[in-house]
Amino acid sequence: MNTAKIVLATLLALALGAGAFVWSGIYNPGADNPHWKLTYAVMETTRERAIEQHASTLSVPANLNDPQLILKGAGQYAAMCTSCHLAPGMQDSELRPGLYPQPPDLSKVSVDPREAFWVIKHGLKMSAMPAWGMSHDDATIWSMVAFLQKLPGMTAEQYKEIVAKAPPDEDMGPMDDNSLPTSDGHTHSGHMHADD
After folding, report:
1. Distance from C-alpha of 64 to C-alpha of 71, rounded to nearest angstrom
2. Tens digits of per-residue pLDDT, 53-63?
3. Which residue of 30, 42, 78, 139 is surrounded by the most CB atoms within 10 Å?
4. Measured between alpha carbons, how far is 112 from 147 in angstroms, rounded to an integer?
5. For domain 63-187, is the CATH number 1.10.760?
6. 108 within 8 A of 148, measured Cβ to Cβ
7. Which residue ranges make up each domain of the chain?
8. Nearest to 79 by CA among 2, 144, 161
9. Exposure of 6 by Cβ count < 10 A (0-12 exposed, 13-18 middle, 19+ buried)?
């Protein structure tokens, strides 16, 4: 009986302490103030395992190598993704340095198709990754996944060529050279999504 009271008192003290911490406002939520290394490691592991688990039941379409699907995905990527995830030849954007956690540079890393689809569709809490599934159908999201399979290793010139050939899409703004990397490797105005 004594042990139960000690456990209960400890749990109550922890709950009150956590409540006082939350209510105090002393936690700094600024994106320019990184988490402790342990906190970051726990959050990263939790996120990665959750994405793996949720994406594991998805079936990858057989047509991910379809050139037309890849072209559509190139246009979508140029319109919606480069400000955060960059493109070949881009070294930075105006938005990216202020993001925490820092999004992966998808022009340099390969991503699992199922995990990419799940993240694009559902987004990620407490990050700048939106849930594109709220405004885009699965076929469009798979086109972006198809393009992502080709993106790593693509040169800046190859990227510009494929984006220039991308089909027009009613949910994207006009395709112009403003979102393509400049000679200094930066972009100063990304494609605007029609909803933006």
Report:
1. 11
2. 999 999 999 99
3. 78
4. 12
5. yes
6. no
7. 63-187
8. 144
9. exposed
